[in-house]
Amino acid sequence: MTLCVQTIPSLYGIYTIDRQAKCKTNQHMLKEITTALAQGLRWLQARFKSPLADDINLLIDIALLTRQYSAQLIVNDHIDWLEVLLKHPQIQPKDNYSLLASQSSQPPLPGLHIGQSDHSLLASRQRLGPHICIGQTCHNSIDHAIKAQAQQASYVAFGRFFQSDTKPTAQAAELATLAQAHQRLHLPIAVIGGITATNIANLLTFKPALIAVDKALWQGQSIAQNYGQFITAINS
Q1: Over the stretch 193-202, which tens digit does the pLDDT of each residue have?
Q2: Model confidence, pTM
């Protein structure tokens, strides 16, 4: 699957639902996601940690919400849940589905993001077919990214570039890796890990397609204000 890459990077919000932590109500979470989508967020990853069995219903609600805004939903790791979404009567692809929403009147189908130790990328692509967006984390490795490209990844993600509260022990990534990736890959590149509106400038030099952010978007007084600060930084 080929993504439509824009000149200006897209903000890619990662929304973590951790059932072992003090969790917000489902309605509160949906309200936060709606706020970001209404501001213009067009990429959203749903990341469930220690999920409950009925969290699939929350994921369905998130998927239906992203479709209202023609936003790309990415499911982290849970390929079985993604397959449930793709069979949902309000989500399942039409017979002639072959293009992203940016190229057709249909909202994009939900996709999958996997790490190096999750599902096999090749097996995931064979299982999901050619039209589902699949991204893979490559940490700081060009070799991983080249392999992902050969196995038909839709995008690759490098990071963490800054200290991250979400994944504090994750391998650090270097700007030199981004420079190599920009030269050697034809896939869209995502950057991730501790990114804020105030530290993003050096990353933008390497023209990433996706800027993945977690707490810097969702925490604080105002999601709308956080989103606006990122967009200002990206466009400056």
Answers
A1: 999 999 999 9
A2: 0.93
Six token digits for residue 47: 């990341």
Secondary structure of the chain in the HEC alphabet?
Answer: CCCCCCCCCEEEEEEEEECCCCCCCHHHHHHHHHHHHHHCCCEEEEEEECCCCCHHHHHHHHHHHHHHCCCEEEEECCHHHHHHHHHCCCCCCCCCCCCCHHHCCCCCCCEEEECCCCCCHHHHHHHHCCCCCEEEEEECCHHHHHHHHHCCCCEEEECCCCCCCCCCCCCCCCHHHHHHHHHHCCCCEEECCCCCCCCCHHHHCCCCCEEEECHHHHCCCCHHHHHHHHHHHHHC
For the segment 104-162, what is each residue's pLDDT rounded down to a tens digit?
567 899 999 999 988 899 999 999 999 999 999 999 999 999 999 999 999 999 999 99
Q: How many CB atoms lie within 10 A of CB 19?
A: 11
> Mind listing the pLDDT tens digit for each residue in 34-84?
999 999 999 999 999 989 999 999 999 999 999 999 999 999 999 999 999
- pLDDT at residue 22, as a whole number: 73
**Backbone phi, then psi, for 213, in 5-degree steps?**
-135, 145
Sketch out the chain's domains with CATH numbers: 10-235 (3.20.20.70)
**17 vs 26: CA distance, rounded Å:** 10
